[in-house]
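Lab notebook, bench 4. We co-purified these components, and the gel suggests they stay together. Before we commit to crystallization screens, I want a quick structural picture of the whole thing.
Request: model the full complex, all chains together.
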Amino acid sequence: MDLISEEKLDAMTSMEKVRLILDEVRNGKILILEKGLTPNEQTKLIELTMAEIEPDDFSGIEIESYPVKQNENFLNKLFGKTTLKTRLTVIGPASQLKTIRKDRDLISALVSP
Amino acid sequence: MGIIKRLGLNFSWLKRLFKRKKAKIGIYGPPNAGKTTLANRIVRDWTGDAMGSVSHIPHETRRARRREDVTIVSNGSSVTLDIIDTPGIATKIDFHDFMTFGLPEEESKRRAKEATEGVMESVKWLEDLDGVILVMDATEDPYTQVNVVIIGNFEARKLPILIAANKIDLPNSSPARIQSAFPQHPLVPISALDGKNIDLLYKEIAEHFG
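Here is the predicted assembly.
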């Protein structure tokens, strides 16, 4: 299992993040991203995951996070600007990571070898 | 008008120029939430046609389908939309899951391959829409990653979302659970299968996307 820091994620482009995640997950790693992914990055990840699914080899990913929050600080409100605050995200191979339950404040998952 | 007709003048280009752009509304959600059942009902109610086949096996819809010029009239207001019925979005597709429904291995693999292409198509369509009807199965946990991703995408682009909490004909459905998960968006509890509350949904569509 790897924990990837916010600083490392900030230094990467969207495509670099998605590629890193898929490569690591395909190697059987479970990743915890301190900052998470934007909705756009998540859809990119889903798209690329679908392209890489192969019968008897890779069936996809399990990804869990809470909904993004909007940054509503004074300056953003003043200029009518919306920025999204992404949140901690766990991603792993669908064959090894299984969500048992998810609600507003708690995600329960099962990790198998 | 009579004079215009007699003079043979054609002002259709003028009408087109001032006509409001039609909104493209996607019907999204996880597999088996009832998207095509709802699309069929909407299109059948307002055009008399159907949109696609439905099945209890997930990923029955593996190609996005677009029905143009569906005019919905409710409470004196009307809206004309292009309705896009999309394949269910998923983060994993395992052909073994189809085999549990009795499909042979080869067919399951083919279906899985088509389903992955369908998900990619759904994701591509996200960039080209003006709003979404997000269909959620009211008997299931609403906090799925698919719901979170779809809502996050539309919120980021400030596009309207209408949640259809489907399958309220089933005894264990709980639209309230969905409403509490996503209180920031309008929700209509419906049964796409038997049509319960469908008029309420049309009213919300006309108000929300008009």
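Residues 39-52 of chain A form the longest helix (14 residues). Worth comparing against the SEC data before the next meeting. Chain A has a mean pLDDT of 88.
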